[in-house]
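#lab-general

N.A. 3:47 PM
ok so I finally got the sequence cleaned up, no stray characters, all 92 residues accounted for. can someone with queue access submit it? mine expired

B.Y. 3:52 PM
send it over

N.A. 3:53 PM
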Amino acid sequence: MLGKIILVYWLAISLFCFILMFWDKQQALNNRWRISERRFFTLAAIGGSLGVLAAMPIFRHKNRKNSFKLPIYGIIIGQVAVCYLLNLLRII
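B.Y. 4:20 PM
back already:
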């Protein structure tokens, strides 16, 4: 049961981040107010990392900035490690 709740949450926040990356790209093209990288890092850390990662090449947004990519990759590695440990402990 907990695994299904986590999966639904993860899919929802990833989709939200994917859409937010698209919106931010549109804002960038029109020289309008943007979403801070700190906000994207926070959203990625609470589960939206794959949505951010998937949106980067699709929308060609922030994919040249190592100062953005490396923390996202780090967050994903950390999340995979946590999921692995939770699975070992039979929590999820």
